[in-house]
Amino acid sequence: MINNLKNRIKKQLVPKSKLVVLNYHQIGETFDPNIHNENIWNSVSLFKEHLSFLKQNFKIVSLTEGLEALKNKTINETLISITFDDGDASMTKLALPILEQLKIPATFFINTAYGSEKIGYWYNLGPYFKDMDLINAAPIIRNTIDHNTYHELLKLENQCNEKYSGRDSPFYANYEAFEKCTNPLFHFGLHGHEHLRFSMLSREAQKENLLKNIEHMQRWPNYVPHFAIPFGKPHDWNADTLEISEELGVVPFLAHHGYNTFYRQPFLRFSVDTKNLQSVFNSFSPFQKSYDKLNHLNN
């Protein structure tokens, strides 16, 4: 009884006026362990369930519209924006057609190095090519805070890309569809030229990675200057990342759980891959721990 009372009070304290940005990665009819990751993959049926739940309960807007509402202080309800990271092959094959049929807007954050310069990065290369060195290195690459260790292990990724150079990437969409897209429902933002942890890069390397991304995408008709920081958790970016974003005129987004009640950069997103969407909304807290690092940087 006490827990139920606490949950009801917590729910009542969550602001009614907010922008909730949802973050997806991969969808598919069936799970393929060679190209999909169980932590970021959704079945088509689950994805459609999510969209049905959202349409029935909320107003879905483009990310640009949501930001404008925050800036102009015109939000008086919960607005939802849908985003996808990376540029997975399922975006053109499945996500775009489903969203277009339902007339739901979405923003796609794209890594421009893959499918052209490189086949992929450590996250997908290891499992696909059964590269045990890269598979074993993956947790360290993802979590280390030592710059030397990070860059030393990234050499394994480079070696794998060089070894299989010339092959078509099984992971990424044909970006020509994005480059030519003029459908007003869909927009394309930045995710870094390569999917690197910006906190592990020098200021110069961070800027170079983001500039390359901008140079590839800025002529796309539906390009928007929004930047989803790769991985987007607190140990994946630093003050330089935010300063460079401001310098280059792009709006940064995190992947750390949180909703947005006012116009404050970087903006927060909820990763909802594999999750029951209703439980995600029920878990909302009035206390935004996602802001802890931002508050520390501003002190």
Mind sketching the topology for me?
Layout: H1 2-13, E1 18-24, E2 26-28, E3 41-43, H2 44-57, E4 59-60, H3 63-72, E5 78-86, H4 90-102, E6 106-110, H5 122-129, H6 132-143, H7 147-163, H8 176-179, E7 186-190, H9 203-217, E8 223-228, H10 239-248, E9 251-253, E10 270-271, H11 277-282, H12 292-298
Parallel strand pairs: 1-5, 1-10, 2-3, 4-5, 5-6, 6-7, 7-8, 8-9
Order of helices and strands: HEEEHEHEHEHHHHEHEHEEHH
Radius of gyration: 19 Å
* CATH homolog superfamily of the largest domain: Glycoside hydrolase/deacetylase
The total count of strands amounts to 10
CATH class category of the largest domain: Alpha Beta
Mean pLDDT: 92
How far the N terminus sits from the C terminus, by CA atoms, comes to: 40 Å
CATH topology assignment of the largest domain? TIM Barrel
CATH architecture of the largest domain: Alpha-Beta Barrel
**So what's the overall shape?**
globular
Count of spatially separate domains = 2
User: Strand count, sense and closure of the main sheet?
Assistant: 8 strands, parallel
| Structural class computed from helices and strand pairing | alpha/beta
Low-confidence stretches: none
Oligomer: single chain
SS element count, helices = 12
Query: Residue share in helices?
Result: 40-55%
Q: Approximately what portion of the residues adopt beta-strand conformation? A: 15-25%
InterPro entries: Glyco_hydro/deAcase_b/a-brl (IPR011330), NODB_dom (IPR002509), Polysacch_Deacetylase (IPR051398)
Organism: Gelidibacter gilvus
Main location: secreted
Subcellular location: Secreted
